[in-house]
UniProtKB/TrEMBL annotation:
Annotated family: Belongs to the PPR family. PCMP-E subfamily.
Record bears the keyword Repeat: yes
Protein name: Pentatricopeptide repeat-containing protein
Domain of life: Eukaryota
Keywords associated with the record: Repeat
GO MF entries: RNA binding
GO biological process: RNA modification
Pfam families: E_motif (PF20431), PPR_1 (PF12854)
Family annotation (SUPFAM superfamilies): TPR-like
GO cellular component: a single term: cytoplasm
Species whose genome carries this gene: Linum tenue
């Protein structure tokens, strides 16, 4: 990319690749891609993987991705909600509730949704 187009790839470019791999169900390949990145992945990269895990119901990799996002951006409520929803989607209600309790314990507040209708 740098040689051909003069563009130095950053985390946004890598997040797009993770999103493409993840949406196509290639979650392990997306994880390996993250592990091989020449720069440290940021929360956007890990959030892309988390979204793909939600889409495909991969609880274990979803937990890994969520923990990485929580380390990098601890106050982001969407991460906790996504992980809780992954657990709920596969019937792991105890784990889903525990994530919501964890949010409360550390003071992360879910912003209410709204629309323009």
């Amino acid at each position: 990319m740098t040689r051909d187009f003069g563009i130095e790839p950053d985390n946004r470019h890598f997040a797009c690749m993770v999103d493409l791999l993840g949406r196509s169900g290639r979650l392990k390949e997306a994880e390996r891609f993250i592990d091989s990145m020449p720069i440290d992945p940021d929360s956007l990269v890990w959030t892309s993987l988390l979204a793909a895990c939600k889409l495909h119901g991969d609880v274990e990799l979803g937990k890994v991705a969520a923990e990485k996002v929580m380390e990098l951006a601890p106050g982001r409520s969407g991460t906790y909600i996504s992980l809780s929803n992954i657990f709920a989607d596969v019937g792991k209600w105890k784990e889903a509730v525990e994530i919501r309790r964890r949010m409360s314990r550390i003071g992360v507040i879910k912003e209410p949704g709204w629309s323009f209708t």
